[in-house]
Amino acid sequence: MRRLEDQKKMFYSIDSTERITEIDAQLDKLIERTQQIINSLNETDPYSPAGHEKSLLLALELNDLLFHYIYPVGELIVSNKEIKNISADISFDTGSSLLTKEGKLAITKLIETISNDISEWKIYLDQHNENVFDQEDYRTILLINGYSDLQGSGNPKERAAMNLDLSNRRAAAVAAEFEKQLTELKAKLKLSYNVKFFGQGENLPPKQIENGKANNPDRRITTISMVVGPKILLYID
Questions:
Q1: CATH number of this structure's domain 84-233
Q2: pLDDT tens-digit profile of 148-158?
Q3: What is the pTM of this model?
Q4: Domain spans of the chain?
Q5: For 50-74, what is each residue's pLDDT tens digit?
Q6: Residue 163: CA atoms inside 13 Å, Cβ hemisphere, count?
Q7: SS (H, E, C) 3-25
Q8: Phi first, then psi: what are they for 197, rounded to 5°?
Q9: The pLDDT of residue 234 is above 90
């Protein structure tokens, strides 16, 4: 339970716009079930024959939760903290939401990391002698946020609306290119995926410091939160 509480704390240290909600839901399920097992153990007399047998079964389930779910979910949280940025100056022409050749290449390079991540997951599970995932497919979830700088014509309200629209169209373009390239990996890697995108307009991107300049390339970015793991860990009913 302490490990889960630490994982929850680490997860909520991630900016709210970048959190993969499926991880949060999985943490809540694990905390709930862990507490149920703890309560059952506290209510069981381990010195009676029936109580001894029940205690062993509960301890076994708790051990399985730890190694089959809690430790791997910790790996997903670490991945969620690693945010990737795509520069709008390289990926889009000025004022455009059409991806450039360089922008598509940047996405291709990120797609290539998915194959590597799956290979690393297989190594991780082999090293930990975990067979529960052997027959499971893999899943990747991407959360894409588009941002703009403070440039534009019109009054501040009109400018902000235009920049919000542009950031949303750029995020949508990045999402569409990811889905296009992920389709090619789907059958090869037994991979399912979920791509979500949002336009953040003139909001300050996470980990950026406001410098007061309207023309700020650090604002003109698309951020990508991407996690890959066994489907059972990233699929919530």
A1: 3.30.1330.60
A2: 999 998 899 99
A3: 0.88
A4: 2-81, 84-233
A5: 999 999 999 999 999 998 899 999 9
A6: 25
A7: HHHHHHHHHCCCCHHHCCHHHHH
A8: -140, 150
A9: no
Residue 14 DSSP symbol:
S
| Length of the chain measured in residues | 237
* Positive or negative: CA dihedral 34, 37, 39, 42: negative
Q: What residues does 92 pair with on adjacent strands?
A: 99
Task: Sort residue 212 into left (φ over 0), alpha (ψ -120 to 50) or beta.
Answer: left
Distance CA 223, CA 219 (A): 10
Instruction: Indicate the SS3 state at residue 88.
Output: helix
> Phi and psi (nearest 5°) for 37?
-65, -45
Torsion of CA 51, 56, 57, 59, to 10 degrees: 120
- pLDDT single digits (tens) 187-223: 788 899 999 999 999 999 998 888 888 999 999 999 9
Tokens of 30: 């694990």
The Cα 132–Cα 77 span in angstroms is 20
